[in-house]
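Notes from hallway chat w/ T.B., transcribed later so I don't forget. T.B. wanted the structure written out for a chain they're using in a teaching module, and asked if we could keep both sequence and structure tokens in one place. Agreed to drop them here.
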Amino acid sequence: MNINEVEIHVRFNEMDEMGIVHNSVYYIWFEIARYNFAMKALGIQYQDLKDMGVLVPVIHSECQYKIPARYPDILKVSCFLEPTEKAMLILHYRIVRLNTNELIAVGKTMNVFTDMNGRLRLTLPDFVRSAIKKTESDSELLMRIKG
């Protein structure tokens, strides 16, 4: 798997009474992919941001469920950064069943940057901006995936 992907093994406790993965679990998987992307693609640890007085809260999230995931599926969650001039991260997600490549769900989250008191930062921290530039080729791939 490349740096924008993470493998997820569906656990039995993630199932609802209908025998499918509960809708809230997809957001946990998005978060796992987002942390993986931040660490591997951007080289950023969230604790490092916090130590610098920067928080990165999610301000928007969405998920479109295509087909259900079930135990014991093995899934691939891909995460791609959408280019923007704003001081925010817009991340897109694709979840596919690994053995069949069936599309399970797509999603999106938007994060902003704040100080430790929750005041919005209007510019990206410099090291975040330079890390994002490294992912521009992945952003081109995102546009093909979205299209």
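Follow-up for T.B.: Strands lie at 5-9, 58-65, 74-82, 88-97, 103-112. Might be a good example for the class.
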